[in-house]
Amino acid sequence: MSTFAQSFTADLVITNANVRTMNSAQKQARSIAVLGDKIVAIGSDADTRSLIG
């Protein structure tokens, strides 16, 4: 996942995880961020670190 700019913090960020995706280009990730009832980011721990508030 590429780095992205955002102006919000996630409600929930799970890091150091083993996330399986349905994306054939990125089958696994280490972190997931949720805002409300939507997944807003999946990637490395570094990718989602800025979403922690």
Strand count, sense and closure of the main sheet? 3 strands, antiparallel
Structural class: mainly beta
Portion of residues within helices: under 10%
Tally of alpha and pi helices: 1
Major sheet: arrangement of strands: 1-4-5
The proportion of strand residues reads 35-45%
**Overall average residue pLDDT:** 89
Q: Which spans have pLDDT < 50 for at least 5 consecutive residues?
A: none
Written overview of the protein:
The chain has 53 residues and is mainly beta. It has one domain. The chain has one helix and five strands, in the order βββββα. Strands 1-4-5 form a three-stranded antiparallel sheet. A two-stranded antiparallel ribbon has the order 2-3.
Task: Please outline what is shown here.
With 53 residues, the chain is mainly β. Helices cover 9% and strands 43% of the residues. The strands form 2 sheets. A 3-stranded antiparallel β-sheet has the order 1-4-5.
List the helices and strands and how they pair.
Blueprint: E1 12-14, E2 19-23, E3 26-29, E4 31-35, E5 38-43, H1 45-49
Antiparallel strand pairs: 1-4, 2-3, 4-5
Structure characteristics:
single chain, 53 residues, mainly beta
